[in-house]
Design a protein that fits this description.
235 residues; mainly beta; seven-stranded mixed beta sheet; four-stranded antiparallel beta sheet; 1 helix; 55% strand; elongated
Length: 235
Amino acid sequence: MYRYYDAPFKIVKDGISLTLEQEGERLLYRSVYADKRVEKILLADRGKVLINPIEPLNKPRELTSYLLIEFERTLVVEPGSTKSIFVTYPIEIGVFIAGSNQFELIDILTLAKQKFTLYGDPRSGVICKYWKSEVYSSIPAVNPLHEGIIELSITNTTTGWVEVTKAIFNAYGMKIYYNDNLVSMRATMKIMSGRSAETDFVDAPLEEGMKKSLELYTVRRLPVVAPKFVMEVGI
């Protein structure tokens, strides 16, 4: 599903229906999934559309740029070590109209359940998109329209064993790659104490030959200052 399409086209997959039809000198775009329906008229000469996974923090609305993934089972990390795990994250799908070396977002879809949580205290805490994931030692088989995979490399810089129950990521640092069977990111977590850690992303595919997604904040021309996130009130 993730690729370029020329008008007219119709896609029906996993309960998602996307169509782009030529109506005279205009294009009619429709998307239908779950109980949601979008219809837009595109006044464009060409009907080239890109569909790819995007940063999963736009639905049901943009409340935060942070994603919190809670682990189903607690990790206990050896001092002075670096270990890698795999976790899942929710997929959001961006639909872009392409033209004149520019892209315009026309729709965002998701089949994932939406939930938010607060990291920290009510007065100064951070609102995060919430997701709960099992912890895997190898890449799990998932539906790439529903879930993506993050390879998380955890480094414990302390001299003691540290328990880790979650990870928080800044969407502005996400580097998403995809192929027909997998949507993925690579990330790091540096444990600085028993209660604090820093997360960041690695701009590299999980498997050879994967394509890099068009980043939503690049399309919107938003400046990116600090893509890292520092977890200061518990890990």
